[in-house]
Amino acid sequence: MGIEYTVIVPIYKVEKYIRKCIDSILAQSFKNFELVLVDDGSPDNCPDICDEYAEKDERIKVVHKKNGGLVSARNAGIAVARGDYICYVDGDDWIREDLLETIYKRAIKDYYPDMIIFGIVKKFLDKDEEILNDMPEGLYGKEVLIKYIYPYMMYDSRKIFCKGLIFPAACNKTYKTKLLKEHYCKEERIRMGEDNAFVYECAWFSNDIYICNEIMYYYNQLNPGAMNHTYDPNRFINNKYLYNYMDNMLSGQNKILDNQLNAFKAYWLIMAIFHEIKSNNSILQAASHVKEQMKQHEPLKYIQFAGLPISAKVFLLFLKLRMYIFVLSFIKIIQKYRK
User: Fold this and answer.
1) Helix runs in 89-171, H state only
2) Alpha helices in 192-297 (DSSP H)
3) Which residues of the chain have a pLDDT value below 50?
C-alpha cells in the first residue's frame, strides 16, 4: 500500500507555534501519511525542533534550505512528496485530529477527486471567523464546474467585490499530487497572493472537485510576524509578478475566466493602496510612494474597466487621475470608522 497523503509544513520563525502544529498532524486518526517539514532557513530554534520530531517518528522528513520565501519552501516539499495527495499546513496553524480520515472517507475512497475543499476557521484573540464553501457538499464534475463554479470562482458578481466561490487559501484544500506537480506556483518571487497563483489554476485544470462543508483547519491570526500583519513597501512589484504569472497560466483559456482575472487584478491593486495605511508614513509620504510605484510598475495597464462594479471603477478612475492624496485620505477615514 502506498502513502495516501504528504502533509507539507513550510516553517519560518514560528518557534512559538510549531509544536502545536506538528502535534496536531501526528495526532491524526488516519495514520497513512508522511510529514515533510521544510525549514526555510528559520533563524530561531525551529530547525532543531524539526530534527527532534524526525528522530521520534519515521514518517517525518525534514528539508533544511536557505531562506527563499513561502513559495520556495512549498516547492521544496512538493519535490520530495511521495503521497497520492498533498496537504499544506502553515507552521503557525493546526488541524482537526480527523481531517485526513474525514476527507478520505467522504471523498477519496469512492471518488478519488483532483481536489477536496473543506472548511476553515480564522482564530482571532476575541472571536472565531468560520469560512465554509458557498456550495452544497458533494462531488462536482467538470460539466458542473464549467457551468456553476468557474464563472464565479474568483469574483462572484452576485456578492461584494471581490469575493469568489472558491476561498483562495492553499491550506483548506487537498490536491492530487499529479495535479499539483503540474500546476504548482513556479514564480518564487511572489510573496503575497501566492495561494491565488496556483489554487485557481489547480481548480481550473481539475476534472472534479469534492466540497466538504466541515471546519477542519484552524488558521492562526495571532502571529504578529505573519505577512498579513506587517507593512510591505513592495506590494506593487509583488502584484506585477502575480499578474504576469496568472496571465501566463490562465489568460486566454476562456472569456469568463479572463473577466475573473481582470476583477482579481483590480481588487489586488485596490488592496495595495489600502495597504499603504499600514505604514507609519504620513499621507503625503504614502502618496509619494504610491505615485512612484504606479509610475514604475504601471498596474492600470493590466486592468480593463469594463465588467467591474461601479465602486471599483470610481476607485480606479481616481488612481488614473493620480488623486493619490485624496484616495489615501478617504481610506484612512474608512479604516478609522471600521475600527
Assistant:
1) 99-103, 109-111, 142-144
2) 194-204, 235-250, 255-275, 283-297
3) none
What does the alpha-carbon distance between residue 222 and residue 122 come to, in Å, rounded to a whole number? Answer: 10
pLDDT of amino acid 227: 59
Angle, nearest 10°, between helix axes 194-204 and 235-250?
A: 10
Q: How remote is the C-alpha of 244 from its chain's centroid?
A: 17
Report yes or no: 171 and 217 within 8 Å, Cβ to Cβ.
yes
Exposed, middle or buried by CB within 10 Å (0-12, 13-18, 19+), for 59? Answer: middle
Half-sphere exposure of 273 (CA within 13 A, CB side): 28
Q: Decide: 317 and 300 in contact? Cβ < 8 Å.
A: no
Give the pLDDT of residue 141: 98
| Grid cell locating 151 | 464563472
Grid-cell match 507552521, residue found:
91
Q: Which of 119, 88, 93, 81 is nearest to 24 (CA)?
A: 93
Nearest-CA neighbor of 243 among 208, 288, 196, 285? Answer: 196
Q: Are 72 and 65 in contact (CB under 8 A)?
A: yes
- Domains within the chain, CATH numbers bracketed: 5-227 (3.90.550.10), 231-338 (no CATH)
For residue 267 the three cell numbers come to 481588487
Note if the pTM is more than 0.90. Answer: yes
Identify the CA nearest to 177 among candidates 21, 9, 3, 1: 3
Q: How far apart are CA 90 and CA 234, in angstroms?
A: 23
Yes or no: say if 303 and 311 are a contact pair by the CB < 8 Å rule. no
Instruction: Give the separation between CA 315 and CA 310, rounded to whole angstroms.
Output: 9
What is the pLDDT at residue 339?
64
Strand 60-65 and strand 128-131: the pairing is unpaired
The secondary element (H helix, E strand) that includes residue 173 is strand 173-176
Model confidence pLDDT, tens digit, residues 104-133: 999 999 999 999 999 999 999 899 999 999
- pLDDT, tens digit, 9 for 90 and up, residues 20-43: 999 999 999 999 999 999 999 999
pLDDT score, position 228 = 65
